[in-house]
Write a structure and sequence with these properties.
The complex is a heterotrimer of chains A (191), B (96) and C (115). With 191 residues, chain A is of the alpha+beta class. Chain A is 52% helix and 15% strand. The chains are: A alpha+beta (191), B mainly alpha (96), C mainly alpha (115). At the A-C interface, helix 1, helix 3, strand 3, helix 4 and strand 4 of A face helix 1, helix 2, helix 3 and strand 1 of C. Chain A: Pfam families: MNHE.
Chain lengths: 191, 96, 115
Protein backbone atom coordinates (compact mmCIF):
# COMPACT_ATOMS: atom_id res chain seq x y z
CA UNK A 1 0.00 0.00 0.00
CA UNK A 2 1.13 3.53 -0.61
CA UNK A 3 1.64 5.38 2.64
CA UNK A 4 -1.16 7.86 3.32
CA UNK A 5 1.14 10.85 2.86
CA UNK A 6 1.65 10.02 -0.81
CA UNK A 7 -1.63 10.58 -2.51
CA UNK A 8 -1.58 8.82 -5.86
CA UNK A 9 -2.48 10.82 -8.90
CA UNK A 10 -6.21 10.79 -9.40
CA UNK A 11 -7.29 9.18 -12.56
CA UNK A 12 -10.55 10.27 -14.19
CA UNK A 13 -11.43 6.57 -14.41
CA UNK A 14 -11.51 6.16 -10.64
CA UNK A 15 -14.55 6.34 -8.47
CA UNK A 16 -13.96 7.07 -4.82
CA UNK A 17 -16.09 5.76 -1.98
CA UNK A 18 -14.53 6.93 1.25
CA UNK A 19 -10.93 5.67 1.12
CA UNK A 20 -11.70 2.87 -1.30
CA UNK A 21 -11.12 3.33 -4.99
CA UNK A 22 -13.15 1.68 -7.69
CA UNK A 23 -11.25 1.58 -10.94
CA UNK A 24 -13.74 1.62 -13.79
CA UNK A 25 -11.71 -0.39 -16.38
CA UNK A 26 -11.14 -3.10 -13.76
CA UNK A 27 -14.86 -3.10 -12.99
CA UNK A 28 -15.61 -3.51 -16.69
CA UNK A 29 -13.15 -6.42 -16.99
CA UNK A 30 -14.66 -8.15 -13.95
CA UNK A 31 -18.15 -7.73 -15.41
CA UNK A 32 -17.06 -9.24 -18.72
CA UNK A 33 -15.44 -12.18 -16.91
CA UNK A 34 -18.64 -12.66 -14.91
CA UNK A 35 -20.75 -12.77 -18.07
CA UNK A 36 -18.31 -15.16 -19.76
CA UNK A 37 -18.53 -17.46 -16.74
CA UNK A 38 -22.28 -17.69 -17.13
CA UNK A 39 -22.20 -17.62 -20.92
CA UNK A 40 -25.16 -15.32 -21.05
CA UNK A 41 -25.56 -11.86 -22.47
CA UNK A 42 -28.38 -10.23 -20.55
CA UNK A 43 -29.06 -7.15 -18.49
CA UNK A 44 -29.45 -9.11 -15.25
CA UNK A 45 -26.06 -10.75 -15.79
CA UNK A 46 -24.44 -7.37 -16.50
CA UNK A 47 -25.98 -5.87 -13.35
CA UNK A 48 -24.91 -8.88 -11.31
CA UNK A 49 -21.37 -8.53 -12.70
CA UNK A 50 -21.20 -4.86 -11.78
CA UNK A 51 -22.48 -5.66 -8.30
CA UNK A 52 -20.01 -8.49 -7.70
CA UNK A 53 -17.14 -6.47 -9.22
CA UNK A 54 -17.87 -3.54 -6.92
CA UNK A 55 -18.05 -5.84 -3.92
CA UNK A 56 -14.73 -7.48 -4.81
CA UNK A 57 -13.00 -4.14 -5.10
CA UNK A 58 -14.48 -2.89 -1.83
CA UNK A 59 -13.62 -6.03 0.13
CA UNK A 60 -10.21 -6.75 -1.44
CA UNK A 61 -8.63 -3.37 -2.19
CA UNK A 62 -5.41 -3.48 -4.22
CA UNK A 63 -2.54 -1.06 -3.86
CA UNK A 64 -2.65 1.63 -6.50
CA UNK A 65 -0.12 1.03 -9.22
CA UNK A 66 0.73 3.47 -11.94
CA UNK A 67 0.29 1.34 -14.98
CA UNK A 68 1.60 3.64 -17.67
CA UNK A 69 -0.10 1.45 -20.22
CA UNK A 70 -0.56 2.71 -23.76
CA UNK A 71 -1.92 0.60 -26.53
CA UNK A 72 -0.46 1.03 -30.00
CA UNK A 73 -2.64 -0.84 -32.52
CA UNK A 74 0.10 -1.42 -35.10
CA UNK A 75 2.67 -2.42 -32.50
CA UNK A 76 0.11 -4.69 -30.88
CA UNK A 77 -0.64 -6.45 -34.17
CA UNK A 78 3.08 -6.96 -34.89
CA UNK A 79 3.61 -8.22 -31.35
CA UNK A 80 0.70 -10.69 -31.48
CA UNK A 81 1.70 -11.97 -34.91
CA UNK A 82 5.29 -12.57 -33.79
CA UNK A 83 4.03 -14.14 -30.57
CA UNK A 84 1.91 -16.71 -32.37
CA UNK A 85 4.69 -17.57 -34.84
CA UNK A 86 7.16 -17.90 -31.94
CA UNK A 87 4.74 -20.13 -30.08
CA UNK A 88 4.35 -22.52 -33.03
CA UNK A 89 8.03 -22.58 -34.05
CA UNK A 90 9.38 -23.09 -30.55
CA UNK A 91 6.76 -25.70 -29.69
CA UNK A 92 7.94 -27.70 -32.68
CA UNK A 93 11.55 -27.24 -31.56
CA UNK A 94 10.92 -28.44 -28.02
CA UNK A 95 9.00 -31.44 -29.36
CA UNK A 96 11.95 -32.28 -31.63
CA UNK A 97 14.34 -31.93 -28.69
CA UNK A 98 12.30 -34.25 -26.52
CA UNK A 99 12.51 -36.95 -29.17
CA UNK A 100 16.20 -36.32 -29.94
CA UNK A 101 18.71 -39.00 -29.09
CA UNK A 102 21.05 -36.92 -26.95
CA UNK A 103 19.83 -34.68 -24.14
CA UNK A 104 20.11 -31.00 -25.07
CA UNK A 105 22.60 -28.76 -23.32
CA UNK A 106 21.18 -25.58 -21.88
CA UNK A 107 22.34 -22.24 -20.56
CA UNK A 108 21.20 -19.81 -17.93
CA UNK A 109 21.54 -16.33 -19.36
CA UNK A 110 21.37 -12.98 -17.62
CA UNK A 111 19.33 -10.59 -19.73
CA UNK A 112 19.44 -6.98 -18.54
CA UNK A 113 16.28 -5.46 -19.98
CA UNK A 114 16.40 -1.88 -21.09
CA UNK A 115 12.93 -0.88 -19.97
CA UNK A 116 12.35 0.66 -16.55
CA UNK A 117 8.65 -0.02 -16.38
CA UNK A 118 7.34 -2.81 -14.17
CA UNK A 119 4.48 -3.45 -16.51
CA UNK A 120 6.71 -3.99 -19.55
CA UNK A 121 9.00 -6.18 -17.45
CA UNK A 122 6.02 -8.30 -16.46
CA UNK A 123 4.64 -8.64 -19.98
CA UNK A 124 8.08 -9.51 -21.36
CA UNK A 125 8.60 -12.07 -18.60
CA UNK A 126 5.22 -13.68 -19.26
CA UNK A 127 5.97 -13.92 -22.98
CA UNK A 128 9.43 -15.39 -22.36
CA UNK A 129 7.88 -18.06 -20.14
CA UNK A 130 5.00 -18.89 -22.43
CA UNK A 131 7.23 -19.26 -25.48
CA UNK A 132 8.69 -22.78 -25.33
CA UNK A 133 12.39 -23.32 -24.79
CA UNK A 134 12.84 -20.69 -22.11
CA UNK A 135 11.98 -20.74 -18.42
CA UNK A 136 12.61 -17.82 -16.12
CA UNK A 137 14.73 -18.86 -13.17
CA UNK A 138 14.99 -15.52 -11.46
CA UNK A 139 13.88 -11.93 -11.89
CA UNK A 140 15.71 -8.96 -10.40
CA UNK A 141 13.18 -6.18 -10.40
CA UNK A 142 15.77 -3.75 -9.01
CA UNK A 143 18.06 -4.01 -12.02
CA UNK A 144 15.36 -5.23 -14.42
CA UNK A 145 17.33 -8.35 -15.19
CA UNK A 146 15.83 -11.66 -16.22
CA UNK A 147 17.70 -14.90 -15.68
CA UNK A 148 16.45 -17.32 -18.29
CA UNK A 149 17.09 -21.03 -18.66
CA UNK A 150 17.32 -21.66 -22.40
CA UNK A 151 16.76 -25.22 -23.51
CA UNK A 152 19.18 -26.48 -26.15
CA UNK A 153 21.27 -23.29 -26.09
CA UNK A 154 24.97 -24.04 -25.75
CA UNK A 155 27.74 -21.46 -25.39
CA UNK A 156 27.83 -20.64 -29.11
CA UNK A 157 24.10 -19.96 -29.37
CA UNK A 158 23.88 -17.82 -26.25
CA UNK A 159 24.25 -14.42 -27.92
CA UNK A 160 21.63 -15.31 -30.49
CA UNK A 161 19.14 -16.31 -27.79
CA UNK A 162 19.84 -13.10 -25.89
CA UNK A 163 19.22 -11.02 -29.01
CA UNK A 164 15.86 -12.73 -29.44
CA UNK A 165 14.71 -11.70 -25.97
CA UNK A 166 15.83 -8.11 -26.62
CA UNK A 167 13.83 -8.12 -29.86
CA UNK A 168 10.82 -9.41 -27.93
CA UNK A 169 11.24 -6.64 -25.38
CA UNK A 170 11.30 -4.06 -28.15
CA UNK A 171 8.08 -5.43 -29.65
CA UNK A 172 6.43 -5.40 -26.21
CA UNK A 173 7.49 -1.78 -25.72
CA UNK A 174 6.14 -0.81 -29.13
CA UNK A 175 2.82 -2.48 -28.32
CA UNK A 176 2.26 -1.37 -24.73
CA UNK A 177 4.88 1.19 -23.71
CA UNK A 178 4.72 4.90 -23.23
CA UNK A 179 6.69 7.00 -25.70
CA UNK A 180 9.40 7.48 -23.11
CA UNK A 181 9.79 3.71 -22.68
CA UNK A 182 9.95 3.09 -26.42
CA UNK A 183 12.71 5.67 -26.75
CA UNK A 184 14.62 4.16 -23.86
CA UNK A 185 14.43 0.67 -25.32
CA UNK A 186 15.49 1.92 -28.75
CA UNK A 187 18.43 3.80 -27.29
CA UNK A 188 19.72 0.58 -25.79
CA UNK A 189 18.99 1.47 -22.19
CA UNK A 190 21.88 3.91 -21.74
CA UNK A 191 19.73 6.40 -19.87
CA UNK B 1 -13.29 -39.51 -38.78
CA UNK B 2 -13.80 -41.96 -35.96
CA UNK B 3 -10.21 -43.12 -36.46
CA UNK B 4 -8.94 -39.65 -35.72
CA UNK B 5 -10.97 -39.57 -32.50
CA UNK B 6 -9.42 -42.90 -31.52
CA UNK B 7 -5.93 -41.56 -32.22
CA UNK B 8 -6.68 -38.55 -30.02
CA UNK B 9 -7.78 -40.85 -27.21
CA UNK B 10 -4.70 -43.06 -27.54
CA UNK B 11 -2.33 -40.08 -27.56
CA UNK B 12 -3.92 -38.63 -24.44
CA UNK B 13 -3.86 -41.99 -22.69
CA UNK B 14 -0.18 -42.42 -23.54
CA UNK B 15 0.54 -38.91 -22.27
CA UNK B 16 -1.12 -39.73 -18.95
CA UNK B 17 0.84 -42.98 -18.65
CA UNK B 18 4.11 -41.15 -19.27
CA UNK B 19 3.14 -38.57 -16.66
CA UNK B 20 2.38 -41.40 -14.28
CA UNK B 21 5.81 -42.91 -14.98
CA UNK B 22 7.53 -39.66 -13.97
CA UNK B 23 5.31 -39.47 -10.91
CA UNK B 24 6.56 -42.87 -9.82
CA UNK B 25 10.21 -42.32 -10.81
CA UNK B 26 10.57 -39.01 -8.99
CA UNK B 27 13.30 -38.53 -7.91
CA UNK B 28 12.48 -35.30 -6.06
CA UNK B 29 9.19 -33.88 -4.89
CA UNK B 30 9.46 -31.10 -7.48
CA UNK B 31 9.63 -33.70 -10.27
CA UNK B 32 6.49 -35.26 -8.90
CA UNK B 33 4.73 -31.93 -8.67
CA UNK B 34 5.67 -31.34 -12.29
CA UNK B 35 4.32 -34.76 -13.24
CA UNK B 36 1.03 -33.97 -11.51
CA UNK B 37 0.93 -30.74 -13.47
CA UNK B 38 1.32 -32.60 -16.74
CA UNK B 39 -1.30 -35.16 -15.66
CA UNK B 40 -3.72 -32.34 -14.94
CA UNK B 41 -2.97 -30.80 -18.32
CA UNK B 42 -3.72 -34.11 -20.02
CA UNK B 43 -6.92 -34.33 -18.00
CA UNK B 44 -7.97 -30.87 -19.18
CA UNK B 45 -7.15 -31.84 -22.74
CA UNK B 46 -9.06 -35.09 -22.34
CA UNK B 47 -12.13 -33.33 -20.99
CA UNK B 48 -11.90 -30.89 -23.88
CA UNK B 49 -11.75 -33.79 -26.35
CA UNK B 50 -14.73 -35.42 -24.62
CA UNK B 51 -16.72 -32.19 -24.80
CA UNK B 52 -15.87 -31.84 -28.47
CA UNK B 53 -16.78 -35.44 -29.28
CA UNK B 54 -20.20 -35.27 -27.64
CA UNK B 55 -20.75 -31.55 -28.37
CA UNK B 56 -21.42 -31.24 -24.67
CA UNK B 57 -20.53 -27.87 -23.12
CA UNK B 58 -21.59 -28.79 -19.59
CA UNK B 59 -18.09 -30.01 -18.66
CA UNK B 60 -16.41 -26.70 -19.51
CA UNK B 61 -16.35 -25.44 -15.88
CA UNK B 62 -14.32 -28.53 -14.96
CA UNK B 63 -11.63 -27.43 -17.40
CA UNK B 64 -11.43 -24.03 -15.76
CA UNK B 65 -11.32 -25.49 -12.25
CA UNK B 66 -8.58 -27.94 -13.20
CA UNK B 67 -6.53 -25.17 -14.83
CA UNK B 68 -6.68 -23.07 -11.66
CA UNK B 69 -6.10 -26.11 -9.44
CA UNK B 70 -2.91 -26.97 -11.34
CA UNK B 71 -1.59 -23.51 -10.65
CA UNK B 72 -2.42 -23.62 -6.95
CA UNK B 73 -0.93 -27.07 -6.49
CA UNK B 74 2.39 -26.38 -8.18
CA UNK B 75 2.85 -23.07 -6.37
CA UNK B 76 2.08 -24.57 -2.99
CA UNK B 77 4.42 -27.54 -3.50
CA UNK B 78 7.24 -25.20 -4.59
CA UNK B 79 6.72 -22.99 -1.58
CA UNK B 80 6.70 -26.01 0.68
CA UNK B 81 10.02 -27.22 -0.76
CA UNK B 82 11.54 -23.75 -0.46
CA UNK B 83 10.55 -23.41 3.17
CA UNK B 84 11.74 -26.88 4.10
CA UNK B 85 15.07 -26.25 2.37
CA UNK B 86 15.51 -23.05 4.32
CA UNK B 87 14.85 -24.97 7.50
CA UNK B 88 17.55 -27.52 6.61
CA UNK B 89 20.07 -24.80 5.76
CA UNK B 90 19.47 -23.05 9.05
CA UNK B 91 19.85 -26.19 11.13
CA UNK B 92 23.13 -26.97 9.36
CA UNK B 93 24.40 -23.45 9.90
CA UNK B 94 24.67 -22.67 6.20
CA UNK B 95 23.34 -19.27 5.38
CA UNK B 96 21.12 -18.92 2.40
CA UNK C 1 -19.21 -31.21 -47.92
CA UNK C 2 -21.28 -28.78 -45.94
CA UNK C 3 -20.01 -25.93 -43.83
CA UNK C 4 -20.40 -27.77 -40.53
CA UNK C 5 -18.53 -30.78 -41.87
CA UNK C 6 -15.57 -28.63 -42.87
CA UNK C 7 -15.59 -27.01 -39.43
CA UNK C 8 -15.73 -30.47 -37.85
CA UNK C 9 -12.68 -31.60 -39.79
CA UNK C 10 -10.71 -28.51 -38.85
CA UNK C 11 -11.69 -28.98 -35.23
CA UNK C 12 -10.69 -32.66 -35.19
CA UNK C 13 -7.32 -31.81 -36.69
CA UNK C 14 -6.74 -29.09 -34.09
CA UNK C 15 -7.71 -31.51 -31.32
CA UNK C 16 -5.33 -34.07 -32.78
CA UNK C 17 -2.48 -31.56 -32.75
CA UNK C 18 -3.30 -30.63 -29.17
CA UNK C 19 -3.31 -34.29 -28.11
CA UNK C 20 0.00 -34.82 -29.94
CA UNK C 21 1.51 -31.91 -28.00
CA UNK C 22 0.31 -33.44 -24.73
CA UNK C 23 1.93 -36.70 -25.75
CA UNK C 24 5.18 -34.90 -26.59
CA UNK C 25 5.04 -33.27 -23.16
CA UNK C 26 4.80 -36.72 -21.61
CA UNK C 27 7.75 -37.98 -23.64
CA UNK C 28 9.85 -34.97 -22.68
CA UNK C 29 8.86 -35.41 -19.06
CA UNK C 30 10.22 -38.94 -19.03
CA UNK C 31 13.24 -38.49 -21.29
CA UNK C 32 14.84 -35.20 -20.24
CA UNK C 33 17.62 -35.73 -17.73
CA UNK C 34 17.18 -32.82 -15.33
CA UNK C 35 14.40 -30.91 -13.65
CA UNK C 36 14.88 -27.59 -15.42
CA UNK C 37 14.73 -29.22 -18.86
CA UNK C 38 11.65 -31.17 -17.88
CA UNK C 39 10.01 -27.98 -16.86
CA UNK C 40 10.16 -26.78 -20.46
CA UNK C 41 8.09 -29.65 -21.74
CA UNK C 42 5.68 -29.47 -18.84
CA UNK C 43 4.69 -25.84 -19.01
CA UNK C 44 4.88 -25.15 -22.69
CA UNK C 45 2.99 -27.75 -24.69
CA UNK C 46 0.44 -27.27 -21.96
CA UNK C 47 -0.26 -23.73 -23.12
CA UNK C 48 0.02 -24.44 -26.83
CA UNK C 49 -1.93 -27.69 -26.55
CA UNK C 50 -4.65 -26.03 -24.54
CA UNK C 51 -4.98 -23.23 -27.07
CA UNK C 52 -5.31 -25.77 -29.90
CA UNK C 53 -7.84 -27.88 -28.00
CA UNK C 54 -9.86 -24.83 -27.04
CA UNK C 55 -10.03 -23.52 -30.59
CA UNK C 56 -11.01 -26.99 -31.84
CA UNK C 57 -13.65 -27.36 -29.15
CA UNK C 58 -14.90 -23.84 -29.79
CA UNK C 59 -15.40 -24.69 -33.47
CA UNK C 60 -17.38 -27.79 -32.52
CA UNK C 61 -19.63 -25.96 -30.07
CA UNK C 62 -19.70 -22.69 -31.93
CA UNK C 63 -23.25 -21.30 -31.74
CA UNK C 64 -23.40 -22.07 -28.02
CA UNK C 65 -22.76 -18.89 -25.96
CA UNK C 66 -20.80 -20.88 -23.40
CA UNK C 67 -17.85 -20.85 -25.82
CA UNK C 68 -16.75 -17.70 -23.97
CA UNK C 69 -15.74 -20.01 -21.16
CA UNK C 70 -12.94 -21.43 -23.28
CA UNK C 71 -11.53 -17.97 -23.67
CA UNK C 72 -11.37 -17.69 -19.88
CA UNK C 73 -9.66 -21.09 -19.59
CA UNK C 74 -6.94 -20.03 -22.05
CA UNK C 75 -6.56 -16.62 -20.44
CA UNK C 76 -6.12 -18.06 -16.94
CA UNK C 77 -3.66 -20.60 -18.24
CA UNK C 78 -1.54 -17.98 -20.00
CA UNK C 79 -1.52 -15.82 -16.87
CA UNK C 80 -0.83 -18.56 -14.33
CA UNK C 81 1.60 -20.91 -16.10
CA UNK C 82 4.47 -18.36 -16.17
CA UNK C 83 4.03 -17.64 -12.46
CA UNK C 84 3.96 -21.30 -11.48
CA UNK C 85 6.90 -22.28 -13.67
CA UNK C 86 8.95 -19.33 -12.46
CA UNK C 87 8.40 -20.22 -8.82
CA UNK C 88 9.17 -23.89 -9.43
CA UNK C 89 12.30 -23.10 -11.47
CA UNK C 90 13.55 -20.66 -8.86
CA UNK C 91 13.14 -23.18 -6.07
CA UNK C 92 14.72 -25.91 -8.19
CA UNK C 93 17.76 -23.75 -8.92
CA UNK C 94 18.20 -22.46 -5.39
CA UNK C 95 17.95 -25.88 -3.83
CA UNK C 96 20.71 -27.03 -6.16
CA UNK C 97 18.78 -29.45 -8.33
CA UNK C 98 20.63 -28.53 -11.50
CA UNK C 99 22.76 -30.87 -13.60
CA UNK C 100 25.91 -28.79 -14.04
CA UNK C 101 27.25 -31.02 -16.82
CA UNK C 102 24.32 -30.04 -19.05
CA UNK C 103 24.67 -26.31 -18.58
CA UNK C 104 26.69 -24.30 -21.13
CA UNK C 105 26.77 -20.79 -19.71
CA UNK C 106 25.49 -19.95 -16.25
CA UNK C 107 25.34 -16.25 -15.58
CA UNK C 108 23.22 -16.57 -12.47
CA UNK C 109 25.76 -18.54 -10.47
CA UNK C 110 28.25 -15.67 -10.37
CA UNK C 111 25.51 -13.32 -9.24
CA UNK C 112 24.39 -15.52 -6.36
CA UNK C 113 27.90 -16.35 -5.12
CA UNK C 114 28.76 -13.15 -3.18
CA UNK C 115 25.83 -13.55 -0.84
Amino acid sequence: MTPPSVIPKRSPLDLRIGRRIINLPTLLTLTVVWMLLFGELSLTMALGGVLVGTLIMLVFPLPTVSLGLRLHPVGLAVFLGHFIVDLVVSSARVVAQSFARRPPRSSILAIPLRTRSDLLLTITAICVSVIPGSVIVEVRSGTFTLFVHMLGTDVDAAEDARRKVFALEERVARAFGTREEIERVEAGGDT
Amino acid sequence: MIYLWTVIGVLLGAASLLGMARLLLGPTILDRALAVDVLLASAITGIGAYAAFHRDPTVLPTMLVLAVLGFVSSVSVSRFVARRQRGIDESEGVDQ
Amino acid sequence: MTGTEILDWISVILLLLGAALSFAAGVGLVRFPDLLSRMHTAAKPQVMGLVLISVGLGLRLFPDPRVGFLFLVVLFQILTVPVASHIAARVAYRTGRVRRDLIGVDELEEQLEPR
